[in-house]
Amino acid sequence: RVMPSESGLCAQCQTSGRCRADWLGKFSGPRQFEIPLDAPISVKAGDAIDVELDSAAILKDVGWLYGAPLCGLLLGAMVAEALSMQGAWGLLPVVGSVGIGWWVARMRPKQRYVKVKR
Known about the structure:
This protein is mainly alpha-helical. Helix content is 42%, strand content 7%.
């Protein structure tokens, strides 16, 4: 388990002792999480480690997460318009396409975004 340290705060956040961007953090206690490792590293409890985030992979997956349902929404609306569907019937292709877009976004392979640097 890894517990983030509070020493990496910017000058504005050091006065409160907590990152102000993490406004939900005040409702939860100290966070601990597990990072899957590709190879074992020699650390013991209390040792400091550096972690690296793959921001390009995060941005790509966020694009899929929001983009696929949005494309489904637009495609469903175009299908409903092309078929001249009126009223509640016009929602069927929209809801179905959004659902398919959500499913496509969820079925993408999971990636590891965090790497441990010693």
